[in-house]
Amino acid sequence: MREKMWQALHAHQQRLVGLRIPDFFANDPQRFEHCSIQACGLLFDFSKQYVQAETITALCALAEACDLQGGLEALFTGKSLNISEQRPALHTALRDPTLTPIRVFGRDLKQAIRDQHQRMGQFVQRLQSGDYLGFTHKPITDVICLGIGGSALGPSMVCRALAPYKNTNLRCHFVSNIDGHTLAATLGHLDPEKTLCMVSSKTFKTLETLKNAEAVRQWFKKTLGPSCDQHCVAITANPSAAEALGFSKEQIFEFWDCIGGRYSVWSTVGLPIALSIGMEHFEAFLAGAYAMDQHIQSTPFSQNMPVLMGLLGIWNINVLGFQTQAIIPYEDGLAALPAYLQQLEMESNGKQPGVGSLGPSTGAVIWGGVGCDAQHAYMQLLHQGTQIVPVDFLVAAQGHPDFPQHQAALVASCLSQSKALMEGVHAKDTQNPNDASAHDCPGNRPSSTLMYERLTPAVLGSLIALYEHKVFVQSQIWGINPFDQWGVEGGKRLLGEILPALENPNLRKDLDPSTRGLMDYFLKHSV
Ligand code: F6P
Q1: Does the beta carbon of 482 lie inside 6 Å of ligand 1?
Q2: Could you tell me if 370 and 331 are in contact, meaning their C-beta atoms sit under 8 angstroms apart?
Q3: Is pTM, for the whole model, over 0.85?
Q4: Is the distance from CB of 5 to CB of 65 less than 8 angstroms?
Q5: 167-210: pLDDT as tens digits
Q6: Alpha helices (runs of H) in 108-258, residue ranges in sequence order
Q7: Residue 3 φ then ψ, to 5°
Q8: For 91, which of 263, 370, 383, 519 could close a Cys bridge (C-beta 3.0–4.6 Å)?
């Protein structure tokens, strides 16, 4: 059945040869209406993709043949979809406000979520009001947030994106890498008596995070002595490991194994967000994601935003052969969105296709950055280069009230890029017909555009959930478990061998010559 659907897609693509995206508009004056969806505060326009109505029908048929519906039911009801780790993936439960229980390993996860959420609320209230005091009875002014990957990218991206909603003087500082320069620069302007350290790690075993946590603890100890307990908070799915490292029970916020790191921004991992924008806005953020959860479950595939977004990716990657995907938000607040989506998409679907999936390539390389800056840097390659890079453009209708003209220019910039990619720029359009080849941009390059009124907490919640579900849709077509990351775990294991080898010459003997040569150079020049 699946094989037939793939064949149908490839046969359909052959029939499109010779046609260009502008032709699709010429043949269907209502193409924008036919190829755009509005839901959950977002307008998704995919009319500039290289697709026709038949393409969408064929892609939806493929999704049905891959039992996407069954996959979605399994996801939302907590079936053990993460087979290699034998657990469900229940990030959607974190934003589900209903009281319907979801039992995981004998207990109601929803009740546990509500308990932690309530603790978060109390904690935020105490910190924001200045009730929460440090060891020397001074209120907290700064929070160092330690964590990496899924324990950092979500909170830091969202804090930045929702900065206009900040309702506190508390400052959050994110440190993820084990680059001593960053830690030194961060600690350099902080007062330990007024600083809180939040250590976020699902496993509480991650080298980068634990090294930074230990360094910050030492920094506290120098000023405050051993009693720096109330300056340290842990956020983890492994509370016993946090306790073993000296965090007291009351200072530990929990989430659970069934919440993947890169899907954890909705959990207690979102504490820095709640601290910055308050619980009410954090709840609006969750509500936005819940709206998208409802949309994907209740909307026919042909009008379903995340389903179509996922299927368009399948078409671009597997049928048209485009291997990368650019994310270009026209909003500085979303500068960290490409990096966030890199982890979400590449760690989830950067895997070999499942047996019988028949889609030979899997997750695209995700990259990008903010427009207009992108235009003045790498958009050249997208317009004239030999690789075709589908783009997701994102832009708000409303800008800062003090600078209304700015938003018009920003939106116009975004629209001119997508139009130029689609139509191309041809010699006759240029000032200098003598040098036609240098000016010629071929066009016929696909993009989608997401527009929204304003980047509210709810809109951002919907947007992130949209991409989460896009990833899930694609994983179902490719037969991938999107919730494990054994490739990364392999690298982590190797680090456990390489780090000791730096100290022990015996362990260096059997290493490959390149690694050994580089280690020798390091050891010679490190002091
Ligand atoms: O190294 C990859 C990874 O395992 C991610 O999946 C995860 O988000 C990150 O490390 C951090 O892990 P932890 O939250 O357990 O510290």
Answers
A1: no
A2: yes
A3: yes
A4: yes
A5: 999 999 999 999 999 999 999 999 999 999 999 999 999 999 99
A6: 109-129, 153-161, 180-188, 207-224, 239-244
A7: -60, -45
A8: 263
